[in-house]
Amino acid sequence: MTEFSYPRRLRLLTGRDFQCVFDDVQLKVPDQPLLILSRPNDLDQARIGFVISKKNVRQAVKRNRVRRIIRESFRLNQHDLPAVDIVILARKGLGEMENQDVHKLMKKCWSRLNSKSRKLKKT
Questions:
Q1: 3-class DSSP state for residue 38?
Q2: In the chain, which ranges are continuous DSSP H helix?
Q3: What is the dihedral of CA 5, 10, 15, 17, to 10 degrees?
Q4: How does residue 13 score in pLDDT terms, banded at 50, 70 and 90?
Q5: 111-118 contacts, C-beta under 8 A, 24 or more apart
Q6: What is the pTM of this model?
Q7: How does it assemble (predicted)?
Q8: Which is it for strands 27-30 and 34-40: parallel, antiparallel or unpaired?
Q9: What is the C-alpha to C-alpha distance for residues 82 and 43, in angstroms, rounded to an integer?
């Protein structure tokens, strides 16, 4: 049976984890309200981290809501994602989106990340 939990091992926790992704970006999934940067990891699962600045999403309530929705989407789709470290960068307008729109956006972004990862593996 598939487990849909969100333990610590699925998170980028330290500054070093984030810096490794920023230094060696191999996959980019750009979209208007967010940018996904990722790089392959040595684990058998994807890990995720967030960079949601106050400059781009002003209110803490909105930053937390967006983070919660993306984390839930990741939790439900973690078994379909490749073994990569993922950093989600918020852009202006993400905090103003409705919950359903953020869910749709993330579904589209996970799909694009999967297809780009498959292309990267072939080369």
A1: strand
A2: 15-23, 60-77, 99-122
A3: 180
A4: very high
A5: 112/29, 113/27, 113/29, 113/36, 113/38, 113/81, 113/82, 113/84, 113/86, 114/80, 114/81, 114/82, 116/27, 116/29, 117/27, 117/38, 117/82, 117/84, 118/82
A6: 0.91
A7: Consists of a catalytic RNA component (M1 or rnpB) and a protein subunit.
A8: antiparallel
A9: 10
**Token code pair at residue 42:** 């040595």
What's the fold here for domain 8-122? Ribosomal Protein S5; domain 2 (3.30.230)
3-state secondary structure of 39: strand
Whether 3 shows a pLDDT value over 80: the answer reads no
**Rounded CA separation 90/44 (Å):** 26
Distances (CA, A) of 73 to 39, 79, 102, 103: 19, 11, 9, 7
| Per-residue pLDDT reduced to its tens digit, 50-95 | 999 999 999 999 999 999 999 999 999 999 999 999 999 999 999 9
Q: Radius of gyration of the chain from Cα atoms?
A: 14
